[in-house]
Amino acid sequence: MSFINGIEICRRFHTEVVEPVMTDSYPFLSYSSALLGPGSEVLGYDTEMSTDHDWGPRVYLFLNEQDSDQIQVSLQGRAPGRFHGIPVDVQMSVVTTVPRFIESYLAVNQDGPIESVDWLTFPSQSLLEITRGAVYKDDHRLLYKLRNQLKYYPQDVWLYLMASSWQRIGQEEHLMLRSGFIGDELGSAIIASRLVRDIINLCFLMERQYAPYPKWFGTAFKQLKCSDQLMPYLWTAQTATTWREREHAFNNAYKHLSNMHNGLKVTEKIPNDVSCFYDRPFKVMNGEVVARLIANQIVNADIKLLADKRLIGNIDQITDNTDFRKINRWSDGEGQYARTALKKLIIHNDK
């Protein structure tokens, strides 16, 4: 059988299995059904290789009521052993409510307001897992409201994250050149890789797209509008064997980033060319200057206070530790505790 991607398999599973069960057994019950959560299929990147684990017919079923055990039993009782030739896991459908899902996924209460600082504790991958995928049924538009609420960062959070990205670039762009200048090509190459990652993250922000986790980072970058022009320079910077080659590649990339930034019209225009780093024989973008220009546009009191203290960004910019990024989903209340601790770290980063 030819490969059918996960979004389509789950759509068929909803139509041919889930919906008949709900119609027959719970004809007056309103609900929403969707493919959300982890998995390459949610982002549309699954291939035949993806089917070897944690892949197959499944949906999230969202109800208004808390009592979901009987519905779970009904679905498991009617589900076939195989669906379109694919084994069906007994836990193929998760029956929950939107508030319960959000609390388990982001460790926030949907009934209360999501504060500006809360957004800095949400990994972009987690936000993708909620806002991508596919919705198959949505009575009362429960998922529409949720996904619309989380579709992208609020304006000042967006500015803060862009400023933090420029700050990261500004803090290391000259270090790559200094390392190479003293003959440390390995150290220079390592810093170059970090800069490539920071530039790509900045591109996601400038195009208002959530960035996925590392496995699909480059794949998703290729889908950005800027990738065709930036990819050759970033690839050269990544693969170059000398620091002068890296410098030249990054300088071309910085010019394009400057034009992208000016196109956003969030600050006064910045130069679209590089300049010397003090009296040293290499050129940089001066990312920290751009960072401050952006930070000066923030009006939200909490985010402005953070920006004035130090531009450390969000959880994705603070750490790349996979387990730490999943703190919102730690069990037994640990997620809420850990996220609160992270908020305190972000808010009091000067202490």
UniProtKB/TrEMBL annotation:
InterPro entries noted in UniProt: DUF4037
Source organism superkingdom: Bacteria
Pfam families: DUF4037
Residue ranges occupied by any DUF4037 domain in the UniProt entry: 119-217
Protein name: DUF4037 domain-containing protein
Organism: Paenibacillus baimaensis
Lineage, broadest ranks: Bacteria, Bacillati, Bacillota, Bacilli, Bacillales
